Amino acid sequence: MELRHLRYFVAVAEKLHFSRAAEQLNISTPTLSHQIQALETMLGAQLLSRKKKSAVSLTQTGKRFLEEARATLRQAENAELVGKRAARGDIGSIALGYILSASCIGLLPELIETFQKGNPGVSLQITRMETFPQMKAIVEGDLDVGFIRAPQRYPAELTGIKSEVVPFVFTTNCTVALNRPIGAPLSNATEAFRFLIRNFFHASLSPG
Predict the structure, then answer these.
(1) Main-chain dihedrals φ then ψ at residue 23, nearest 5 degrees
(2) pLDDT digits over 192-202, tens only?
(3) Which CATH number is associated with domain 91-205?
């Protein structure tokens, strides 16, 4: 059974007429009739009572199936919408680590507030963690993004960007996300944060 079978059945059930439903679906009446018969065969149940010409009525089984078919189609449409929004980075979740000093000076709360206002469908899972544990967590996949002080050396697996305004580095283990090496400057912390989150999140949700 495919979604098209459900769409065809719902159209016939609403029109109670094969020809009118076929016109709405932009297919031929014989094709529509064949698809409904195939659906009934798959279900092992009669959904429609055929009357004169193209007119039909719903059986009791058909009435119950109509409710489920409509619910399934609504869910499929919602799943498609969610998938498209996730692909655009409009919804989802990011695990973010930070060092205490970033929060104490008020920088991180301000940046997070700005980000969440522009991305209400994206949830941030925020954890306070020191620099080296953050880098380890990113490499192991427990964190998506780290907000750290610049160490003397970085693990080879990490990529990142650095803000010129504050001595913090944003790192991520998603090499597709950033087209800049670690230390590549951005004009300010807000731009750096927006750049990292936007690009990391889009890349992490992209197919393949």
Answers:
(1) -65, -40
(2) 556 665 555 44
(3) 3.40.190.10
